[in-house]
């Protein structure tokens, strides 16, 4: 018994409490909501990438039986507030920002831009209505790539900007760039491209907006990573006071960065609900998701690398161009993070960095799992290219350049300390897990028989949340809050601003609270998704393990202290003598004295105690991240490339990673595997393609290919779990790392497989046709 | 509108859907059975998979009127008492899913497949599930769940499979 009592939920692969409902069809997703009198919305979307809207004729649509209303862009503008992207307005960017309406008014800016919203008794009828809307367009030259966008002759998408630059060109230097390059033995030049691809959650965007005219009150049932950010957006765009808006959310079918706040379409649906005084549902279809929800990653990098003859990477000078698409949002902020993260865990002495964000006639650039991931791709790709030229092994060049773990820690040339970073250990562990000399022998034998095997590795760090900043919290998003309450039925309720969409918070936070407070796991309830009851928060940026795990730990201790303090009055015992074990409060060493925590709560609520006794068994807690720290690790792939067909198969994929202490190992492994699968997809399959007129060519799952069960290998994971930094909270986030590091891991392996052909790879998307082109174009003499 | 009668999860049901209404929309809107999910509405992702007369079917590609007279099983009907069947239990024990949106289709596809291939291998399972997209998991935990169900179905002792679980990352919930 003693052994069991000492056991903790935290650190065990406790089965998810989300699963019984999910496995029986009892999950409640936004499209499952049906309200009395609910109407359905569908959007008329532009077939043109860039055009003036000459006229919109909605008369035939309005006349269709079952259609309740049609709003053009101009009509919707009259009842809403134009402005920049709501999230950007929250962050507060410098410089001029494009202001835009929820629906296009004077012009359309990408193929898929919403022009009118049709509201009808069913989705079928709403789509029928869309077919009847006649829009006359006047073509404008499409701006379909960043280089044309940056050409002064390109027609500006937004009149108030005058050009197609979303944020002005900027340059900054860390360290002495000129001297570092002057002293280098070798200077390499590379041009690295990352292609456009996207989140593709299995559930697209959607909402049910329900306006109560009697109370002038808007309730929005949303699929969002933050009910509070959505609420702010709704209030801002509808011109309502924030206390007149409530956003609630149930189960959410994935997001990966797509569903932060409320999109233009969701806000348009809310505006329609207010105008019609009836609930309006909008759920996007897959075509809308692929063409209009948002896309990510299309970036190019001109890289100069200062290197010693021994393989020391001394400095980098990088020019980045990011294609933010139309209606610029979060993409504008990405270059700054790319710059900060470019040194990674390496001893880089100097970094010059300049960036330009271009506006183009494509869907908007959105956050996608590790939005700054290209820094890892660029760095890990050029390390292999440099190693090849210098005759070094990929492992050797990395071990040579990673900063050693020292006290005080080494500091990235861009400023942040590499506290607790175990890149060197993860590289060494990968070398042990994958016997590289044995692989090289097997590779040589296979090549002799016409089989092209390759091995690739890449290492990364992830600020999840990041090291403590002097005088401030860990990580960029500030403190995390939580309200905790002991209910009269003995339930410990946690009210969190986290908005889980697959991350298993209902399970993992309950594990921590159960251990810290002293109740069975089943006696903790995690309350999410209602702006009326949960504090501000956001699920994203791999921050919840540390931030929410930490506030749960400290909050549960605070609540426990309060319950024990009250119980000391109730039981007439000293607080020091009381404990909570298995949901019962009792005097240590006297189990017969124990009473259930629910009974304690009922007595507290009875009102029989005077004002000198605090009987309010509720606490508010905040956590600033403690000592914070980095996640990170090294991934390794072994692939085979069929040089006749260009097909790549992944024979083995090994992960050695360090996210500190694990809350639930099965949940952590699931996050890593899911990220790796998306990274493998990004390299072998996925690409958002536009033709030269700006038509999206990847509007179905037959054209935008995501990995299937036959494309993703078993992924072997080893957790290093080193370096406790904080006295209590050493959980670090793990949501984004797999997607950040898998692309360079895969491309490095593919280039290694093709090394007999002299192939050098400067891009990320390598479908079979591209592999064959690379082989055909290569110089075997290299 | 077309009058139809069919059996859903063992219960006789009638309805009058429009001829163009998909079986998925009929189940979700007319019968209020929202366990069946729509992920692409063009037959690729498999989230809407249900079992019609013993075969796995994409309910977004089948019209409700085509199901007239058929026996339809949805995720809600797998374990009618609100509990979990062998496959669902094995998937819970294996941490198979994350966001849960693909789950109904994945479970129904695997159910139909296992009824014809009760001793399926990992490769057969991967191929059988390759028409169902999951964006969260990388599939390994789902495949492990189906393999565990295969193992348990083959074992006459209901207690045995738990201790024989091959994957150290998916231990059963510990008892307290």
List keywords for this structure.
heterodimer; A: 782 residues; alpha+beta; Aldehyde Oxidoreductase, domain 4; Aldehyde Oxidoreductase, domain 3; 3 domains; 7-stranded mixed β-sheet; 5-stranded mixed β-sheet; 22 helices; 26 strands; B: 176 residues; Ubiquitin-like (UB roll); DNA polymerase, domain 1; 2 domains; 6 helices; globular; disordered C terminus
Any overview of this molecule?
The complex is a heterodimer of chains A (782) and B (176). With 782 residues, chain A is of the alpha+beta class. Chain A folds into 3 domains: 2-25 and 479-623, Aldehyde oxidase/xanthine dehydrogenase, molybdopterin binding domain (Aldehyde Oxidoreductase, domain 4); 33-140 and 205-252 and 259-292, Aldehyde oxidase/xanthine dehydrogenase, a/b hammerhead (Aldehyde Oxidoreductase, domain 3, Alpha-Beta Complex), CATH 3.90.1170; 384-469 and 629-777, Aldehyde Oxidoreductase, domain 4. Chain A is built from 22 helices and 26 strands. In chain A, the strands form 6 sheets. Chain A has a 7-stranded mixed β-sheet with strand order 3-5-1-12-9-10-11, sandwiched between helices. In chain A, strands 7-15-14-13-8 form a 5-stranded mixed β-sheet. A 4-stranded mixed β-sheet of chain A has the order 16-24-25-26, with helices on both faces. In chain A, a hairpin with a 2-residue loop joins β21 (584-587) and β22. In chain A, α18 (544-571) crosses α19 and α20 packs across α21 (737-753). Mean pLDDT of chain A is 94; it is low at 1-6. With 176 residues, chain B is of the alpha+beta class. Chain B folds into 2 domains: 4-77, Beta-grasp domain (Ubiquitin-like (UB roll), Roll); 86-163, DNA polymerase, domain 1 (Orthogonal Bundle), CATH 1.10.150.120. Chain B has 6 helices and 5 strands, in the order ββαβββααααα. Chain B has a 5-stranded mixed β-sheet with strand order 2-1-5-3-4, sandwiched between helices. The longest helix of chain B is centred in the C-terminal third of the chain and has 15 residues, at 140-154. Residues 159-176 of chain B have low confidence and may be disordered. At the A-B interface, α2 and α20 of A face α2, α3, α4 and α5 of B.
């Amino acid at each position: 018994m003693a052994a069991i009592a000492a056991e903790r939920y935290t650190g065990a692969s406790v089965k998810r409490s989300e699963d019984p409902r999910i496995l029986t069809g009892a999950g409640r997703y936004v499209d499952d909501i049906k309200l009395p009198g609910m109407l359905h919305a569908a959007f008329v979307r532009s077939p043109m990438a860039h055009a003036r809207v000459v006229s919109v004729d909605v008369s035939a649509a309005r006349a269709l039986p079952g259609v309740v209303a049609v709003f053009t862009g101009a009509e919707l503008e009259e009842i809403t507030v134009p402005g920049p992207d709501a999230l950007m307005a929250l962050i507060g960017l410098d410089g001029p920002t494009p202001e835009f309406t929820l629906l296009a008014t004077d012009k359309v800016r990408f193929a898929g831009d919403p022009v009118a919203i049709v509201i009808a008794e069913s989705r079928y009828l709403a789509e029928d209505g869309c077919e009847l809307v006649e829009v006359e367009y006047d073509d404008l030259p499409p701006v379909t790539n960043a280089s044309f966008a940056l050409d002064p002759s390109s027609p500006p998408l937004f009149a108030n900007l005058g050009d197609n630059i979303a944020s002005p060109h900027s340059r900054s230097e860390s360290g002495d760039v000129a001297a570092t390059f002057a002293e280098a033995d070798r200077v390499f030049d590379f041009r690295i491209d990352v292609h456009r691809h996207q989140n593709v959650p299995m559930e697209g965007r959607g909402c049910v907006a329900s306006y109560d005219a009697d109370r002038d009150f808007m309730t929005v049932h949303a699929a969002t990573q933050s009910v509070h950010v959505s609420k702010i957006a709704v209030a801002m765009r509808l011109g309502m006071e924030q206390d007149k808006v409530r956003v609630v959310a149930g189960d959410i079918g994935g997001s990966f960065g797509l569903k932060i706040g409320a999109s233009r379409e969701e806000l348009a649906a809310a505006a329609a609900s207010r105008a019609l005084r009836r609930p309006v549902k909008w759920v996007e279809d897959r075509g809308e998701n692929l063409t209009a929800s948002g896309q990510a990653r299309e970036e190019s990098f001109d890289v100069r690398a200062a290197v010693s003859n021994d393989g020391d990477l001394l400095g980098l000078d990088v020019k980045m161009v990011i294609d933010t698409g139309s209606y610029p949002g979060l993409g504008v902020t990405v270059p700054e993070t790319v710059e900060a993260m470019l040194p990674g865990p390496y001893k880089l002495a100097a970094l010059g960095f300049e960036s330009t964000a271009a506006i183009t006639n494509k869907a908007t650039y959105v956050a996608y799992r590790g939005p700054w991931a290209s820094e890892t791709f660029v760095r890990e790709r050029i390390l292999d290219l440099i190693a090849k030229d210098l005759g070094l092994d990929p492992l050797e060049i990395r071990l040579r350049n990673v900063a050693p773990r020292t006290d005080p820690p080494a500091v990235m040339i861009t400023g942040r300390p590499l506290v607790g970073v175990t890149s060197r250990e993860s590289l060494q562990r990968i070398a042990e897990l994958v016997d590289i000399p044995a692989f090289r022998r097997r590779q040589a034998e296979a090549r002799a028989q016409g089989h092209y095997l390759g091995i690739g590795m890449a290492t990364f760090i992830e600020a999840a949340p990041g090291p403590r900043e002097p005088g401030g919290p860990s990580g960029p998003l500030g403190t995390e809050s939580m309200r905790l309450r002991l209910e009269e039925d003995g339930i410990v309720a946690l009210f969190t601003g986290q908005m889980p969409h697959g991350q298993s918070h209902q399970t993992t936070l309950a594990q921590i609270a159960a251990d810290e407070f002293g109740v069975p796991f089943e006696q903790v309830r995690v309350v999410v998704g209602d702006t009326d009851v949960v504090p501000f928060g956001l699920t994203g940026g791999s921050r919840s393990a540390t931030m929410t795990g930490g506030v749960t730990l400290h909050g549960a201790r605070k609540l426990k202290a309060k319950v024990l303090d009250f119980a000391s009055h109730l039981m007439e015992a000293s607080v020091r003598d009381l404990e909570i074990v298995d949901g019962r409060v009792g005097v240590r060493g006297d189990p017969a004295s124990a009473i259930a925590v629910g009974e304690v709560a009922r007595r507290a609520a009875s009102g029989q105690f005077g004002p000198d006794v605090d009987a309010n068994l509720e606490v508010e807690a905040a956590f600033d991240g403690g000592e914070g720290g980095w996640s990170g690790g090294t991934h390794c792939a072994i692939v085979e490339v069929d040089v006749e067909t260009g097909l790549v198969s992944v024979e083995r994929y090994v992960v050695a990673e360090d996210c500190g202490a694990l809350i639930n190992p099965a949940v952590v492994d699931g996050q890593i595997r899911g990220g790796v699968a998306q990274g493998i997809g990004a390299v072998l399959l996925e690409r958002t393609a536009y033709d030269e007129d700006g038509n999206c060519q990847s509007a179905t799952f037959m054209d935008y290919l995501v990995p299937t069960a036959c494309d993703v290998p078993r992924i072997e994971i080893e957790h290093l779990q080193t370096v406790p930094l904080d006295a209590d909270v050493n959980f670090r986030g793990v949501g984004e790392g797999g997607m950040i590091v898998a692309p360079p891991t895969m491309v490095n392996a593919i280039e290694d497989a093709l090394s007999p052909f002299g192939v050098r790879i400067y891009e990320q998307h390598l479908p079979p046709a591209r592999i064959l082109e690379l082989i055909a174009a290569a110089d075997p003499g290299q | 509108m077309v009058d139809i009668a069919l059996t859903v999860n063992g219960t006789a049901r009638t309805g009058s859907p429009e001829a163009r209404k998909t079986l998925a929309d009929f189940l979700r809107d007319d019968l209020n059975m929202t366990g069946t999910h729509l992920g692409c509405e063009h037959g690729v992702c498999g989230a809407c998979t249900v079992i019609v007369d013993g075969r796995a079917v994409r309910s977004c590609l089948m019209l409700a009127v085509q199901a007239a007279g058929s026996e339809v099983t949805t995720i809600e009907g797998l374990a009618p008492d609100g509990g979990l069947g062998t496959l669902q239990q094995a998937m819970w024990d294996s941490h198979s899913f994350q966001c849960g949106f693909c789950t109904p289709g994945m479970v129904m596809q695997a159910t139909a497949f296992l009824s014809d291939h009760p001793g399926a291998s990992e490769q057969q399972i991967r191929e059988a599930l390759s028409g169902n997209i999951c964006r969260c998991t990388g599939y390994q935990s789902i495949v492990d769940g189906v393999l565990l169900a295969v193992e348990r179905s083959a074992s006459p002792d209901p207690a045995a499979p738990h201790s024989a679980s091959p994957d150290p990352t998916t231990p059963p919930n510990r008892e307290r």
